[in-house]
Amino acid sequence: MVRASRTIPRTRTVGAELAPPCDRERRARGRASSAPTVAAVIASLGLAFCAAPRAQERTVADGVYTDAQASRGAAAYDASCAGCHRPDLSGNTGPALKQQRFARVYAGKDLKTLFTKIATTMPRNAPASLSDDVNLDIVAHVLKENGFKAGTEELTVAALDAIRVVPGQPKAPPPVGDFSYVEVVGCLTRGAQGAWTLTRASAPVVATPTSASAEAAARPLGTETLHLVDAMAYAPDGHSGHKMYARGLLIKLSEETRLTISALDMLSPTCER
Question: Same domain, yes or no, for 104 and 143?
Fold first, then answer.
């Protein structure tokens, strides 16, 4: 006797076919939630982008102006600003625009703060009379005078908000050459025929309008000799053998180096160091 074969339906098929409609919907939702969706992928990428480090913030030390822009700014500054702030930015009737005061007022702020101050309040006798381009040039000049290097692109108004001001850096002194205005320390020495020289003199460095003998008192002596022009106008006899500070115009000749004096001050009654 041949028995009829029975085919037992697979559980998955039975479950899928016999399950109530609401169960089928719940299962479909479960499968959908377990699979990554386009939205989930985008969200995960977005989180990855957020976790990536931000681009380094720009500062005025990153070369945000050009040399040509600063040169134009120097001319504009001399014409409109130097009368109040001095040609070297050290301040007069207007505040200083460099060194400690520059850092105290502007460091940590965006560069637009400095630009806005210049654009809205300067020049004193005609506030807000200069164009944005001229004011940008002046900002570039101020940055250069505070020791910040030039770059390859000119500073623009649109860039100001994204550039942070940091404390100024010492500006490299210009090279010393013939007819440079310099300062030097040395031993005042009487020469032949009433001539006066500075012996054991330090190497001359470019003097600034704010140079003073007090700042040079600790400067060591050197090996140079300078012939002092018009030394008799400074009563040198009482300071023979003293360590002196001299400031004036440097004249280099083939046979000697001369200094046309504009200041001569005693630093020490001896010339031991």
Answer: yes
